[in-house]
Amino acid sequence: YSGSLTNLYIFLTGLANLTILQVLDLSGSSSNCLKYLSHLKVLDISHNQLSGSLSSTITSLTSLEYLDLSYNNFEGPCPLSSLANHSKLEVLLLSSTNNMLLVKTENFLPTFQLKVLELANCSLNVVPTFLLHQYDLKYLDLSLNNLVGDFPSWMLQNNTKLEVLFLTNNSFTGNLRLPNTKHDFLHHLDASSNNFIGTLPQDMGTILKKLLVLDISNNHFEGNIPSSVGEMKELIILHLSKNNFSEDFSTPFLTGCISLWFLDLSDNNFYGQFFSKDLNLTQMEFLYLENNKFSGKIEEGLLNSTKLYQLDISHNFLSGHIPHWMGNFSNLEILLMSNNCLEGNIPVQLLNHRTLKLLSVSENYLSGSMTSSFNLSSLKHLYVQKNALSGPIPDMLFRSSKLMTLDLRGNNLEGQIPDQICQLRRLGMMDLSHNRFNGSIPSCFTNMLQWTIENVDLFGGELSIFPPLGFCYIGTYYNSTLDLEVCKRDMFTSPQQVKVEFVTKNRYELYNGSNLNYMVGLDLSCNELTGNVPSEIGDLQKIRGLNLSHNCLSGSIPRSFSNLQMIESLDLSNNRLSGQIPAQLIELNFLSNFNVSYNNLSGLIPDKGQYSTFDESSYRGNLYLCGPTINKSCNSAEETPAIKSKGREDEDDFVIDMVSLYWSFGASYVTVILGLFAILWINSFWRKRWFYFIDALIML
After folding, report:
1. pTM for the whole structure
2. Looking at CB atoms within 10 Å, which of 40, 156, 206, 346 has the fewest?
């Protein structure tokens, strides 16, 4: 439902006579008539589009025990003093969606004792003082309020039965100070995205021994992880990313965390070997270690985590070969190993994995040819760029019918681009640039790159972890018991985000999340491709980036390129293209980058539409182009461009390769000298004559 509270009057008027109504749920769809519902105990109007100010009639509903007004578009001041007489109230949910609701808590001394309080995104700025008088809280959410000051440890002291505490996305500072006594009820603490500093309390694992979820990511913590954390045997989620922690992981502090299911240590300064044989994380499914300083080989301790679903060890200093046993994780769907010092080849076992959907081994020192035994039937994203792989592309790769992004750039791959590549009907982005591919461009590209990337929600969006679990907790107080397995799965409906680099506008752009829905691209630049540009490429109507530069392509620019209505970047530079720039290309209304420099093009340069925005740099190196864009009149053309173009090709046939000339001259010189010395060494007669000749020259 959308509108104001008053607009519900007609619907609710009929409810006015239901004076003993106890439960009213309008969620997913309060006017003055609400005041007659004096026995109402539960009121839920959450997740609507209600706007305006909160109705003052709620003040009269003093029998309320459960009040949920969250996730609407309310705005303006909302004094909690209007609930001062609601002595039976146990659950109050008032989270805002538009950051326009100003909850006022000053001079408020309630008569109720809450069990559940949610005031997320309510512009509080300070911790409400009335919480000093609350002692029965089990669930408290004060996130997204720009709260300042130290960690409110008194909340834990006052509410000994507190189970869930959300303080995320505030401005708390100072050290994380905990109570001196154990808190056995707290099982979810989220203090992420604040400004906490210093080290963690050494007795943290002792005081909060029953924690299931700990998230203190995106702060400024430093130093070591307390060894007492190993005492948290029930801990299933540990999120420490984006801090300044620094510790040698040779010390196995996690060995006691036998229930760990999710571990994120990314973006810190951890170092040493992580995968020691003592590591026994048998329940681990999500492991993120990227952007640290881990080094050494990948040890077999990781083998104990047989349930691994996602593994990210990218941007470290790991070395050695990729272990063949990494293909034994039967549930693994995402494996990120880029930006390390790994060497050797990609194991056959990994290239035959049946569940992998995302594999990235880019920017390592991998070498050798890609094995012909290639059967990644579930693979959707493959990144092998910037290694030293050689040989042809294996034909078996093209049986990965689900492949959506393929990046092989920056290797030493060679041979022709096989026609079988056109079997990849779902392919949205392909980068084969900076290799040694030769031959012609397959004309069957018209069969692929036709769709935008499908099912991007499988990988899109940021990793959203804790809010769904929070709702699971709320449900325990009024519904069934908490099912952690169900809640854990709900938290990870969107796995790790896919990030794709693709060159457009003369630079590499990063596409991720929902942006992948709109990016379709093909990059074959910096190879040794020959022949004409296939006119069939003009049928790729949804393509946004096309780069064929730095090859040996000849012929004319296909007129069919005028069909590329969505294209934004088109680079055909540094080839041997001839003829005119098709006038029909002015119909490309989204084109923002166009480069045909260093070809043999001729004739008038288009200057309408998007072409009026391009300067001389897009056309340099074409002697017979003319037009206002390059300040050259077409009437002053010296000779017929077609004839001159042919003449230029003939000239190219007679161009002297100076480097080869110098090497040939040097080799000939050395050969003559060595031959002369050999003759003098073998033939004594000529040797004597040589010395006589030298003596005669000296006497002169």
Report:
1. 0.81
2. 206
